[in-house]
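=== Per-residue structure ===
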Amino acid sequence: MSKRVVITGLGVLSPIGNDIPTFWNNLINGRSGVAPVTQFDASEFPTRMAGEVKDFDPQDYMERKEARRMDRFVQFAVAASKDALSHAGIDITQEDADRIGVYIGSGIGGLKTWETEHKKLLEKGPRRVSPFFIPMMIANMAAGQVSISTGAKGPNSAAISACATGTHSIGDAAKIIERGDADVMIAGGSEATITPIAFAGFSANQAMSRRNDEPEKASRPFDRERDGFVMGEGAGILVLESLDHALARDAEIIAEVAGYGMSGDAHHLTAPAPEGEGAARSMKRALKDAGLELEEVGYINAHGTSTDFNDKFETMAIKSVFGEHAYQLAVSSTKSMTGHLLGAGGGVEAIATALALKEGIIPPTINYEHPDPDCDLDYVPNEARRVQVSAALSNSLGFGGHNATIAFKAFGGEE
């Protein structure tokens, strides 16, 4: 018999807060974290804004020597994981270390390190490249370093599926607990790609918003005037735990991970499948896995990137899955406030969805000013909504046609 999986700890670094109370307060009050880029001179780029993590000092979480051997995305993962474990009230010991695992991914990995070391190679020659270049850059190192930093010796892996990474990591981690291979998993995503090469690449394929004169209004999912996504950075980490393990230690339970679905578009490098049929299959699988009826779902945290095709096709996917009930759903995109955190997005949005269930407040989609006839659902425009829902979905859709959906339930007890 498979085990039930619950969420007992949360850790976040985001453009709207580096701890859960700040993040949640800003989220439900509709505050944007998007502003002009400060990490490099973006004056020559068509997009000059981003959702940056502010006031982060890695030495609050690790020794300076350790921090220098980690890319920024790894520092984020370690910091958010330590916060999540603290929130869960878990102190890993030698007695339980092999029953506690890590599943943290990154869509791109250490791009900042790659740029720095490549510049050294070109300007100063191969002998000046850091011996830590490779272990700092590779995308699995968030999971590796979290294991080293916390002592977690259980199952350890990393999903790398572009913008679906965080959601895949959480879903896969939940399945590890379900089948009994771990009691606790530290799971989520981390990303730090606010760099010149990333901006050049995304600008070249015209994916990012160019509303530089109003950065806080640039990310506008489902709005008719949307013109592209806004890049963000950060980490979203959840402590997942088997229900019996959580009850045995009298842990506070935030929500339940009830189901997980994923699919592939088999369509295009960057464009979603027509009418969102791949996303629809992912949602259907999550619902089936959770044993949820359509009418039980009251909220969807949408992928909602603020790009033309994504928002239109995700809307179509929701309608194809839920039929008439789609118009009874609250659907919001928290990317309107955080920007798009790429591989970390699914982790941060899972946190938002779990808190929405626990607190009875659905975060809004801000900057929703011009209704789009192609996007005709209830996007919780501009103001949070107090409503208690019993079940919710969180969608993440990535380049390459990767689709992932997690179904959450409000925790109502052992039965």
